[in-house]
Specification:
Layout: E1 4-13, E2 16-25, E3 28-32, E4 43-46, E5 51-54, E6 56-61, E7 63-64, E8 67-68, H1 74-86, E9 89-97, H2 101-115, E10 123-130, H3 152-161, E11 166-171, H4 178-187, E12 191-194, H5 201-210, E13 214-215, H6 231-238, E14 242-246, H7 254-264, E15 269-272, E16 284-288, E17 291-296, E18 299-302, H8 315-326, H9 330-333, H10 339-344, E19 362-365, E20 371-376, E21 379-380
Parallel strand pairs: 1-4, 1-5, 6-9, 9-10, 10-11, 11-12, 12-13, 13-14, 14-15
Antiparallel strand pairs: 1-2, 2-3, 5-19, 7-8, 16-17, 17-18, 19-20, 20-21
Helix pairs in contact: 1-2, 5-6
């Protein structure tokens, strides 16, 4: 693969847009001044009138285009990766819903087989375990009979099987053994998040003090704030943890998005999709792990109970929603989809911003913030 140079575009560097030339070679970036000559033999891509941003990073998703992560083969994971890349997501974590030990181990094995391949599109960076160490009261779409108390030994066995590639885990602070589990996760190189929880303020703050670094889909499947009982919601808003947010207009009212950003600041919010296999497909009947899901007008809910079960959101749509909900310019909002998730899961050294030597994961946006071109580690995605 020869060198490619993107010229005449407005490049997102230092949280602002300015004209630069970007040279992509060997999967990484070089940033040149706009008047620098294009290296001999390089292919020039004209981005006049367009903006170039880092590729989106989605750290919480259960699938798309007919594939559910809990049942995805290595080939299926690449199908999801290609779909995500087409919507500007150049890196992601596969979120494994609470399942049996055997099925969770199978999911880990499929991830490893996928990682061993070429990964020509969006890069699957690792695994997010959403459970099984969760509270039944706020289980959402989790199968209650598979929920467990904290079990550091089980988590260790999963991480050994994954060869260190479980990067993120959601757990409930009120489950028995939660603090010990958080400490074990940190020793194993896993970033702990708290969610699916009705924990008290005190339990939540104890979990944060132990090392919980994020809140899973903030305000959803979470005990509500009360002036006398701030609960988990009060703890995550007051503390310095990152807060995930699903910006589809269903999980969060636009006012709730604005409140979260105002409370936490733009450096501590992380836009996620929490998408399920229905993303990119028409309304109909689908599944999420062991659950049957019905999607009507793009809204995914558990069959029978009507409990919301993930989303059909994509990250490019999340960016446009954030602009619409907040009235803020794109350059202020982009860290929520790029820099912040990269920092949270420890990959900011090579992902999440445009700089010399970083991975050439780029999205070219048109004037309406729609994806025009995508580069995954220097390769232009074929449409």
């Amino acid at each position: 693969m020869g060198e490619t140079c993107i010229v005449n575009g407005q490049v997102y560097i230092g949280r602002r847009f300015e004209e630069k030339t970007l040279c992509l070679s060997g999967g990484t970036l070089r940033v040149l001044e706009p008047d620098a000559p294009v290296p001999a033999g390089a292919e020039a891509v004209d981005a006049s009138g367009k903006r170039i941003i880092p590729g989106f990073i989605d750290i919480h998703t259960h699938g798309g285009v007919g594939v559910d992560v809990n049942g995805a083969t290595a080939e299926d994971l690449e199908k999801i990766s290609r779909f995500f890349a087409g919507n500007g997501t150049t890196s992601w974590l596969c979120s494994v819903l609470t399942d049996t030990v055997e099925q969770t181990e199978w999911c880990i094995d499929q991830f490893k087989a996928h990682k061993a391949g070429e990964q020509p599109t969006s890069e699957l960076l690792g695994i997010h375990l959403e459970g099984p160490f969760l509270a039944a009261e706020y289980k959402g779409a989790m199968p209650e009979h598979l929920l467990r108390k904290g079990d550091p030994e089980l988590l260790r066995s999963y991480q050994e099987r994954a060869e260190g590639d479980i990067r993120y885990i959601t757990l409930s602070p009120e489950v028995e053994g939660a603090v010990e589990l958080i400490l074990a996760a940190k020793r194993l190189g896993i970033v702990p998040a708290i969610g699916h929880s009705g924990a008290s303020y005190e339990q939540s703050m104890e979990a944060i003090a132990a090392g919980a670094a994020a809140a899973t889909h903030t305000f959803n499947a979470m005990g509500l704030f009360h002036q006398h009982r701030p609960a988990i919601m009060g703890a995550v808003l007051e503390s310095d943890v990152y807060c995930e947010m699903i910006c589809d207009g269903r999980h969060l009212h636009p006012g709730a998005v604005r409140l979260l950003i105002k409370t936490k600041g733009l450096d501590k919010v992380v836009a996620i999709t929490d998408s399920i296999m229905a993303a990119g497909l028409p309304d109909g009947k689908y599944h999420l792990g062991v659950n049957q899901v019905v999607v009507e007008e793009g809204d995914a809910k558990l069959a029978g109970s009507g409990v919301r079960a993930g989303s059909t959101l994509t990250q490019d749509a999340a960016l446009r929603s954030l602009v619409a909900f907040t009235g803020r310019p794109v350059e202020e909002l982009l860290p929520a989809l790029t820099e912040n998730p990269a920092k949270l899961i420890g990959v900011f050294g090579r992902k999440g911003s445009i700089a010399d030597g970083k991975d050439a994961d780029l999205v070219v946006l048109d004037g309406e913030n729609r994806v025009d071109m995508v580069f995954c580690r220097g390769r232009m995605l074929e449409k």
